[in-house]
């Protein structure tokens, strides 16, 4: 899920192939974009070799990032927490899935540019999540029929390795949750693919009138506001008495899960509920978030192999 952080410090890693009927990204025809920072030359590279989707999409960024981040090799304490976690909470947009759901839906409805421009302005300053969410939705007011049409024509693109990782965690007795600022209508099919029950999904809900017209979103959902993800995780932890809980995501709203960083990043919000925050930068590398993570990874294979 995107964090509202300075957009000049974000590196995007995108695959350009949109799969029509399958939920997984193919092992060929992969493109990545490498955005360099202000003090470097700007460049773009294209790879069209038959490589694995992980290798093709993240290796260059991972290599260039190793000198900037000191948290790419986990400590023994971090590994122990990861291996012994009772529960793992995943962000969805730009983590479990390759796309940002609201931006994709807006593009489908013909308002992609307007929403992207508003998002860019929002990311340059401190904007409450609920304000950003309401502003974006107001730009295109998606109807129920549009959402249904979108889900039919543009199925979610699942990140390479996520299905295997979820399967491995569940086999180890770890409970898996999806906690997202996205929408239940769009996350439900993803949860189904991964075998995650509906009661383990915490996300926002689009609201529609009797004729299917858009009327807003459910503001009672904790994930609909700043600090809401941490609140959701606290509820999960309290309800099940989990001793060790891990959060995996890419953005500032995911970092707020962390007990250590929550209050410093979001003054006035409740403290986070996760013992460990793993920043997944396989789709979006947000430098401000990555620097504060307990562990920075660029592909899910790292996490899978560490559970062996």
The percentage helix is 25-40%
Give the radius of gyration: 18 Å
Mean pLDDT: 78
The shape is globular
Total beta strands:
10
Secondary-structure element order, N to C: EHHEHHHHHHEHEEEHEHHEEHEH
Protein name: phosphoserine phosphatase
InterPro entries: HAD-like_SerB (IPR050582), HAD-like_sf (IPR036412), HAD_sf (IPR023214)
Keywords: Amino-acid biosynthesis, Hydrolase, Magnesium, Metal-binding, Serine biosynthesis
Cofactor: Mg(2+)
Any overview of this molecule?
With 308 residues, this protein is α/β, with parallel strands linked by helices. 39% of the residues lie in helices and 14% in strands. The protein is built from 14 helices and ten strands. The protein has helices at residues 53-65, 76-83, 92-96, 101-108, 112-123, 129-138, 144-153, 162-171, 184-194, 228-240, 252-255, 262-265, 287-290, 300-306, and strands spanning 10-12, 87-90, 175-183, 201-204, 206-208, 214-217, 245-249, 276-280, 284-286, 295-297. The protein has a six-stranded parallel β-sheet with strand order 4-3-2-7-8-10, with helices on both faces. Strands 1-9 form a two-stranded antiparallel sheet. A two-stranded antiparallel sheet has the order 5-6. Helix 4 runs antiparallel to helix 5 (112-123) and helix 8 packs parallel to helix 14 (300-306). The longest helix has 13 residues, at 53-65. It starts with 9 loop residues before the first strand and ends with a helix. It holds the Pfam family Hydrolase. This is phosphoserine phosphatase. It is an enzyme of class 3 (hydrolase). Belongs to the HAD-like hydrolase superfamily. SerB family. Pathway: Amino-acid biosynthesis; L-serine biosynthesis; L-serine from 3-phospho-D-glycerate: step 3/3.
């Amino acid at each position: 899920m995107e964090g509202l952080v300075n957009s000049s410090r974000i590196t995007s890693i995108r695959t350009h192939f949109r799969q029509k009927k399958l939920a997984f990204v193919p092992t060929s025809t992969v493109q990545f974009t490498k955005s360099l920072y202000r003090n470097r030359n700007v460049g773009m590279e294209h790879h069209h070799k038959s490589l694995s989707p992980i290798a093709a999409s993240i290796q260059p960024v991972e290599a260039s990032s190793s000198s900037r981040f000191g948290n790419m090799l986990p400590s023994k304490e971090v590994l122990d927490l990861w291996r012994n976690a009772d529960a793992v909470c995943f962000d969805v947009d730009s983590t479990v899935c390759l796309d940002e759901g609201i931006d994709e839906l807006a593009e489908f409805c013909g308002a992609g540019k307007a929403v992207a421009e508003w998002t860019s302005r929002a990311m340059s300053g401190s904007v409450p999540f609920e304000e950003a969410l309401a502003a974006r939705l107001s730009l295109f007011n998606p109807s129920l029929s549009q959402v249904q049409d979108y889900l039919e024509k543009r199925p979610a693109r699942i990140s390479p390795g996520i299905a295997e990782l979820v399967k491995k965690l569940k086999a180890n007795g770890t409970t898996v949750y999806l906690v997202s600022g996205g929408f239940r209508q769009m996350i439900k099919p993803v949860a189904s693919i991964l075998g995650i029950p509906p009661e383990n999904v915490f996300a926002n809900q689009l609201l529609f009138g009797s004729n299917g017209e858009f009327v807003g979103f459910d503001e009672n959902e904790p994930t609909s506001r700043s600090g809401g993800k941490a609140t959701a995780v606290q509820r999960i932890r309290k309800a099940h008495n989990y001793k060790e809980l891990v959060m995996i995501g890419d953005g500032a709203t995911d970092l707020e899960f962390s007990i250590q960083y929550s209050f410093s990043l979001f003054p006035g919000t409740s403290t986070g509920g996760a013992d460990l925050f793993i920043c997944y930068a396989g789709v979006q590398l947000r430098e401000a978030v990555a620097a504060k993570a307990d562990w920075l990874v660029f592909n899910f294979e790292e996490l899978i192999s560490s559970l062996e």
